[in-house]
Design a protein that fits this description.
7 strands; Rossmann fold; 9 helices; alpha/beta; seven-stranded mixed sheet; 228 residues
Length: 228
């Protein structure tokens, strides 16, 4: 996919079609292009919740259920949500699954002890709306752990990462899945505000303790914090 990045409802349609398309081989491509590091990133995401066993955790943009399985293993009660039906059809998890938009969560206020989200912040139409929904649905004292791709701060690592992410990842995706989709995904990093801006946005809606963790030298990032 070339040209300007889609916005608004056009972005929502593009993302839904893209993930429906790549769903059958999504897990395989993830493992190959991250050299298996995505497994450890998800486990770290779940560990950072620091919630009691049995806590109810909603996993937004759950995809094929990787984080739901990690949540189950950690003793949490997971519910997965995704708006791409193709991803839900490929899901391998015993957790209940819901097809819905993360910007309009079908849950009551303060109904979750925690929320996780893996690699979807750059795919929503509006981060402010997403963060407001997190604040609405997570109970006071509950936790969020939001995982996404990032760019290393170190200039040398950043240059190497850019070469890999922008040139090699589309080749891997094209060989194993859909070339157009995996050309779009590296470009979608442009949707993300600066880490400082995202921390500020989350603090403003009710997560004053939010902090950003850099993983694997800064190629992934994790935002974790507690609802005030």
């Amino acid at each position: 996919m070339s040209g300007p990045l889609p916005r608004g409802e056009d972005k929502a349609r593009t993302v839904r079609v893209l993930f429906d398309t790549i769903a059958p081989r999504y897990d395989l491509v993830n493992r190959v292009m991250t050299l298996g590091m995505d497994v450890g990133w998800r486990r770290r995401t779940v560990r950072e919740l620091h919630l009691p066993s049995g806590s109810m955790v909603f996993d937004l943009a759950c995809g094929t259920g990787d984080l739901c399985r990690e949540l189950d293993r950690a003793g949490y009660r997971a519910v997965g949500l995704d708006f791409a039906l193709g991803m839900l059809r490929e899901a391998r998890t015993d957790a209940p699954l819901v097809q819905a938009d993360a910007l309009r969560l079908p849950f009551r206020d303060a109904s979750a002890d925690g929320i996780t989200c893996g690699f979807a912040l750059r795919n929503v139409v509006s981060l402010p709306e997403l963060f407001a929904e997190l604040a609405r649905v997570v109970r006071p004292g509950g936790s969020v752990a939001l995982l996404d791709a990032s760019r290393p701060d170190n200039r040398v690592l950043r240059a190497g990462h850019a070469l890999y992410f922008e040139k090699v990842v589309p080749l891997i995706g094209g060989a194993l899945s859909d070339r157009a989709a995996y050309r779009y995904l590296p470009r979608s990093m442009a949707y993300l505000p600066s880490p400082a801006d995202m921390v500020g946005m989350l603090r403003a809606v009710g997560f004053p303790s939010i902090r950003r963790l850099q993983l694997s030298g800064g190629i992934a990032q994790l935002f974790v914090g507690t609802r005030a």
